[in-house]
Amino acid sequence: MNSTQLQQQDRFARQITARLAAGTAELPYEITERLRAARVQALSQRKRVAMLHTASAVSSSGSAAALTLGDEPQSWWSRVASLLPIIALAAGLIMINSLENDRRASEVAEVDAALLTDDLPPAAYADPGFVQFLKQSNQE
Question: Rounded distance, CA 85 to CA 112, Å?
């Protein structure tokens, strides 16, 4: 539909509501009250039906709560779609763990390479006199 058709429909709807509103002014009080009560009842039922179809409901049992979409059973696709974020989170955590392990291994390899290519033998670093030597050389 284009905008001119929508405008025509809106104009027609306004004309109808204006005639209906003018006609209710002439009705007796009892009839207007029954119409008002019926209108309120119809609106409350419409809201209730709309909530069942579109709004989410929170169902709780004990200390746990679950977000559900009304009383409709979940299809196979919705179950798979609800598991995808959990799978993505687990894959991300595994990838982060693997990257951290690789980073730690490369740091240890750099330290080992520096120790092995240094002029001092690795046993010199464990000698208690070597620590004293380092302290004295830093003071000078």
Answer: 41
Per domain, the residue ranges of the chain are 1-72, 87-140
pLDDT digits (tens, 9 = 90+) for 59-102: 555 566 565 555 566 788 888 888 999 999 999 999 999 999 99
CA distance 15 to 23: 12
Give yes or no for a contact between 56 and 68, defined as CB atoms under 8 angstroms apart: yes
Confidence check: pLDDT of 139 > 90: no
- Paired with 64 in beta bridges are 61
Cα 121 to Cα 114, 127, 129: the distances in Å are 11, 11, 14
pLDDT, one tens digit per residue, over 122-133 is 777 778 887 787
